[in-house]
Specification:
One of its GO terms (biological process) is positive regulation of axonogenesis. It is found in: Membrane. By secondary structure, the chain is α+β, with helices and mostly antiparallel strands. The chain is about 40% helix and about 15% strand. Strands 1, 2, 3, 4, 5, 6, 7, 8 and 10 form a nine-stranded mixed sheet that branches. Strands 9-11 form a two-stranded antiparallel ribbon. A hairpin with an 8-residue loop joins strand 1 and strand 2. Helix 1 packs parallel to helix 3. The chain is rod-shaped, with a radius of gyration of 45 Å.
């Protein structure tokens, strides 16, 4: 029951007015923030020549660690329908084209009455949920199953069974839907991308990411780099001017020191001469009182 409720909540998120509603993109792996839902990928090809057979679609999903879509119940069917509705919203250029799912049969020559019981999920799921259109499966040479997706069809030409299932020849060319195990919740902060594995034929849409500490720091630091450079240049210029002034002051002191010594010596010599001139006449005159002058 909790699984069904979880899937219904996922469908509500896709159908509602939240950010997820506008971001289902062809060929991208879609996971959910609660890490309880499986992940899905809706691979749509605009060019008919690019679409693939059942076996090619199966191999493509398995090469990425997934499998062609298996559906457990009506809630999961509703979730996929919601994704398809968002995928084909107006303006995306995505329209008609059935999608391979993982249901198929390998038996030969069985009676028509037993045919529906021979279909199995390619990923080994034991789910007994089915969403066949009326009078399907037709069996015969049609052994592989598609989810009908012709949203532009008139009601009388297939419109009423949109998203229901139809068996088809396995070599026919269609789009496909992959399913993956739920993502493991990360134990450390970091960037968690909900949409990945974008092929060449996708359309330009915004990718939803949950950024951790490191991406946020990058967005803060990068715009401040010019300011940091300006501060660094100003600081360097200031330091250069201070060093230049200090050097000039040292040179001035060094040059002025000898000049001061010479001036002092000259003053001392001048005073000595003056004293000698005063003392000699007194000695000649033999007058002791002149030393008092």
């Amino acid at each position: 029951m909790s699984r069904v409720v979880s899937l219904l909540l996922g469908a509500a998120l896709l159908c509602g007015h939240g950010a997820f509603c506008r971001r289902v993109v062809s060929g991208q792996k879609v996971c959910f923030a609660d890490y309880q839902h499986p992940c899905y990928k809706l691979a749509y090809f605009q060019e008919l020549s690019s679409r693939v057979s059942f076996q090619e679609a199966r191999l493509a999903c398995e090469s990425e660690g997934g499998a062609l879509l298996s559906l457990e119940n009506a809630a999961e069917q509703k979730l996929i329908e919601s994704m398809l509705q968002n995928l084909t919203k107006p303006g995306t250029g995505i329209s008609d084209g059935d999608f391979w799912i993982g249901l198929w049969r390998s038996g030969e020559g069985q009676a028509s009455g037993a045919c529906p019981d021979l279909y199995r999920w390619s990923d080994g799921s034991g789910s007994q949920y089915r969403n066949w259109y009326a009078d399907e499966p037709s069996c015969g040479s049609e052994k592989c199953v598609v989810m009908y997706h012709q949203p532009t069809a008139n009601p009388g030409l297939g419109g009423p069974y949109l998203y229901q299932w139809n068996d088809d020849r396995c070599n026919m060319k269609h789009n496909y839907i992959c399913k993956y195990e739920p993502e493991i919740k990360p134990t450390t902060p970091g960037e968690k991308t909900y949409f990945t594995n974008q092929p060449e034929d996708t359309h330009q849409n915004v990718v939803v990411t949950e950024a951790g500490i490191i991406p946020n720091l990058i967005y803060v630091v990068i715009p401040t780099i010019p300011l940091l450079l300006l501060i660094l240049v100003a600081f360097g210029t200031c330091c250069f001017q201070m060093l230049h002034k200090r050097k000039a002051r040292r040179n001035f002191i060094k040059d002025s020191t000898p000049l001061s010594s010479e001036c002092l010596a000259e003053n001392l010599n001048s005073n000595l001469v003056h004293m000698m001139v005063s003392i000699i006449p007194c000695h000649v005159q033999n007058n002791n009182s002149c030393f008092l002058n």
